[in-house]
Structures are given as structure tokens and as C-alpha cells.
Amino acid sequence: MSPLRLVWKNIAGSAFRSWAVFLCALVVGGLLFSTVLLVRGAEDSLRLVQQRLGADVVVVPEGTGDRVETALLMGQPTKVWMPRQNLDRIGGVAGVAIASPQLYLASLANAPCCTAEMFVMAFDPQTDFTVTPWLNRHLGHNLGLAEAIGGSDVFVPYGEDKIRIYGSEIDLVGSLERTGTGLDTALFLTFDTAYAVADGSYTKAVRPLEIPPDSISAVLVQVEPNVDPRVVALQIAHDVPGVTAIPGSGLFQAFHTQAGLLSRIMAALLGTVSLLSLLLVGLTFSMAVNERRQEIGVLRALGATRRAVLHSLLVEALMLALGGGATGVLLAALVLYLFRNLIVASLMMPFRIPSVPSLLALAAGGLAVALADVALAVLLPALRASNLDPATAMRE
User: Fold this and answer.
1) How far is it, in rounded angstroms, from Cα 44 to Cα 136?
2) Arithmetic mean of pLDDT, 80-91
């Protein structure tokens, strides 16, 4: 009988032991993969949204920083206002190179293109550095009146050629790269389009879009070269009353903290599960070795070396671990993909699925840990079995 056939015979001959090892590897591999994927996906999303904004400092009405950050990351529409004259004050602060205003609005609930209120962001094409660079690269021109670009999850309703907002038809001319954040469900249009939609909403919509006169929601700031954004943020907060100035490096700190907490919780859970799996697999194989003492004695008597016995037991365990770990990784990937929106809503964390090479690397890591966990658990019983005296084992 070939060594591989003997391994398969032993696997099939002990369903309990085989399933125990398989399931332990499944849980360890799947849990490690999902843990790293969730944390990596959240960190990638935070990094991408900060890059998309491109701001060294974000200025919002005092006390609204958390609301604005949640709107940008989770796509929860918000309406915050401050006087437009703040824009000139901010632009006059030492170290400010560009100050670009934005309006944060919301579409009507259950409107075409979306099942809930959609986050709508209006920008000034003359000063914007968030959306305009993408427009220049991909469209070669800025947005015109009644034109917009959307996040990756914004779409034109089936059978239509435009999006309707507050009764006005908007031409969706492009979609931005997926970030895994609220920006994927946001619609970007110019101030002129926002004002035109608001004016028309009084006769076209069931509820008008109201924009307070001479108001903006936020100001994105780029500082001059070699100027510390934190110093500029402090100066803005001092010179402009009623605002909160957040340095770009300080954006989404609550979400960074939450991602770190999630990482620690999942790491503790993974450590506990790995330890329990180690103990269970080790106990299971110890029982198997005791049950198979005569079989091992016969193999040794027939000429099998200690190394061959050890190799056979390790291969048996690692085959089960490989199958279980691969199944766990695939199941975890499938669950995270199918229920990613539910997971994001439950954890209140952004999440972006990494690239295929990153996914493969994470999957390999999950498999490696599952294999190492099982190999470590089996090593001691396998060594004990390989050292059995053939004559003594056959008499027992």
C-alpha cells in the first residue's frame, strides 16, 4: 500500500478525528482571513477617502465635525451651514493657498437611483481640488449645468437616461473609483446646478430643496508648501469664530480608533480560538495514536522507519488542515462579499475589498496559520507514535 493511500485510509477510517481537524482549521483559517481583511479594508477606505478629499485642513461649522466625518465615510446625508463670508476669512489666514467651499445636501428618500436619501455634494469648479482633477483626467472638462458625477454605487435608473433630483433631471457623466466609503453613494455637482435644482424644486418636487442664502457647509483648505497644516488649523480656529478646523492628518480619528479596537478584539478572539483548536487537535491525535498503537507497531515491524511513521501522521493532519483552511478562507470571503453592506452598517466602519493580489496574499496567510496551528498540535503525538517500540506496541 502506498503511503498516500494509507493516509487516505486513515482519514476515512476515523470520521471524528478527521472532522475535528478539518473544522478547527476551517475556523482558524477563516477567522484570520476575515480579521485581516476587515481591518485592511477599513484602513484602505480611510486612506482612499483622505486622498480623494485632498485637503490639508477641513473647516466645518463648530460642533459638526463628527457629523461631517460620518457623512463622508458612511454616506449618511447631513445638512450643516455656516456663513459664506467665512470663506474669505479662511482664505485670508496666513499659510492658506486654496480655500474651496462645499455644500452638503440630501436627495429625497426613495428617489430614482437609490433606495434611501443620497448624499449630495456641491463644489466650486473654480477652486475645487477634490473632484476637478478627476474630471480633467477622465472627461477633459469640468461639469456643466445639470451635470454630475457619482460614486461607484450611483447609477441611472433602468429605462432612464438621467437621474432625477427634486424634480430636476441630472446627467450622470461619470463614476468615481470605489473607496468603500460613503463617497461611493454620493453625487457631486456644481454650486450652479445645486442652486438650479433648489429653485426648480418649489414647483417640481413634493418637498423643496432649501439652501439658506449665502451659506456653505464646509471649506477644504490646501496650505502653502512647507507650511504645517496643524498650525494653519489652529490659526483658522482663532481667526474665524464659530468653526472647527480639522487637520487632514486628524480626520476620521474616531474611525481609526474604532478600526484599532476591532483589530484588537479580533486578534484576542483569534488567539483564543487558535489555542482551543491546538488543544482539541492535540487531544484528538493523542487518542488516535493510542488507538492505532498495534497498527503502528505492525508498520514498524514491516520495515517502516520512525521518519516514515512521523511523515505519515503529519501528512494526514496537514491534508485535513489544508482542506479545512481553504474552505474557511473561501467561506469567509464569500460571506464578506455578499454581506459587506450589512457588515459596514453593523460595525459603522467603511470597508473596501482589496485588490486580487492582496486577497491572495491574505488567503495564503490564513492557510499558513491554519497549517501551522494543526502541525504544532500534531507534532508531539506524532513524535510519540514514531518512537513506539514495535514489539511492545504489537502486544498491547
Assistant:
1) 25
2) 91
